[in-house]
């Protein structure tokens, strides 16, 4: 069975500090892709970052980095230097080629 | 930029009504998806399509049907709306089926069934 688990329903972070959003996944496939999306209160899902299962280096996109630990099947999102505009829901997702699987999301609130 | 549009941002319907949610993408994507999003449950896949006139059931297809007569358009149909179908509906599209393909989402439709 394919599954994405996000254990943090809500997180708070002080502005300008870093925050880690947890994601673990479960798959028997050897090849898969891992994604993070941001959903502001407006509702639209915004793609943030991608990590392939065979990528040896952790993906980075600006202030976003993905801490990929394949043996632990975890793909945590790290946001550095948090900004007020980072307040949103964040979803971890896995693509096995046939289907996308999403976690239940983490609500991040950045405190001024 | 990829653009995925949905026909309505907000929709209020009555129980038993037939409801059409339209989704259009402008990037010639092969694949299109319909999800519903509920608090604490994340995104759940209703139906998807990898080609024109092709459809596949997702995890929660009951009470829904879809139509894909043209490549750019994917419609979600609630044959007889019920209050438990009150939800946020998200349409998405992607170019291919490789692992690197991200999905591009529309703005969502918040449906309230009274």
Question: What would you say about this model in short?
Answer:
With 112 residues, chain A is mostly beta strands.
Question: Characteristics of this structure?
Answer:
heterodimer, A: 112 residues, six-stranded mixed beta sheet, 53% strand, globular, B: 114 residues, mainly beta, seven-stranded mixed beta sheet, 0% helix
Could you characterize the architecture of this molecule?
The complex is a heterodimer of chains A (112) and B (114). With 112 residues, chain A is mostly beta strands. Chain A is 0% helix and 53% strand. Chain A has strands at residues 3-5, 10-14, 19-21, 24-26, 33-39, 46-52, 60-61, 64-69, 74-79, 88-95, 100-102, 106-111. The relative contact order of chain A is 0.34. The model of chain A has no long low-confidence stretch (mean pLDDT 94). Chain B is mainly β and 114 residues long. Helix content of chain B is 0%, strand content 53%. Chain B has no helices and eleven strands. Chain B has strands at 4-6, 10-13, 19-25, 31-38, 42-49, 56-57, 64-70, 73-78, 87-94, 104-105, 109-113. In chain B, strands 2, 4, 5, 6, 9, 10 and 11 form a seven-stranded mixed sheet that branches. Chain B has a four-stranded antiparallel sheet with strand order 1-3-8-7, with no helix packed on it. In chain B, strand 4 (31-38) and strand 5 (42-49) form a beta hairpin. The mean pLDDT of chain B is 93. Classes of the chains: A mainly beta (112), B mainly beta (114). Chain A binds chain B through residues 4, 6, 9, 31-33, 35, 37, 42-47, 50, 52-53, 91, 95-100, 102-105, and chain B through 9, 33, 35, 40-43, 45, 48, 58, 88, 90, 92, 97-108, 110.
């Amino acid at each position: 069975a394919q599954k994405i688990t996000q254990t943090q329903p809500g997180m708070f972070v002080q502005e300008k500090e870093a925050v880690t959003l947890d994601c673990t996944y479960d798959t028997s496939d050897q090849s898969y892709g891992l994604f993070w999306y941001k959903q502001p209160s407006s509702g639209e899902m915004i793609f943030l970052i991608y990590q392939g299962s065979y990528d040896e280096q952790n993906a980075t996109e600006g202030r976003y980095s993905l801490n990929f630990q394949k043996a632990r099947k975890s793909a945590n999102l790290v946001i550095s230097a948090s900004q007020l505009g980072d307040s949103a829901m964040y979803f971890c997702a896995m693509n096995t080629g046939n289907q996308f699987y999403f976690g239940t999301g983490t609500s991040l609130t950045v405190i001024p | 930029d990829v653009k995925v549009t949905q026909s309505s941002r907000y929709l209020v319907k009555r129980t038993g009504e037939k409801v059409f949610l339209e989704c259009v993408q402008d990037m010639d994507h092969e694949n299109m998806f319909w999800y519903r999003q509920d608090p604490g449950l994340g995104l759940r896949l209703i139906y998807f399509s990898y080609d024109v006139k092709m459809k596949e059931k997702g995890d929660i297809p009951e009470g829904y049907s879809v139509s894909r007569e043209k490549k750019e358009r994917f419609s979600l149909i609630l044959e007889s709306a019920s209050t438990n179908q009150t939800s946020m509906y998200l349409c998405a599209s992607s170019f291919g089926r490789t692992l690197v393909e991200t999905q591009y989402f529309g703005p969502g439709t918040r449906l309230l069934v009274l």
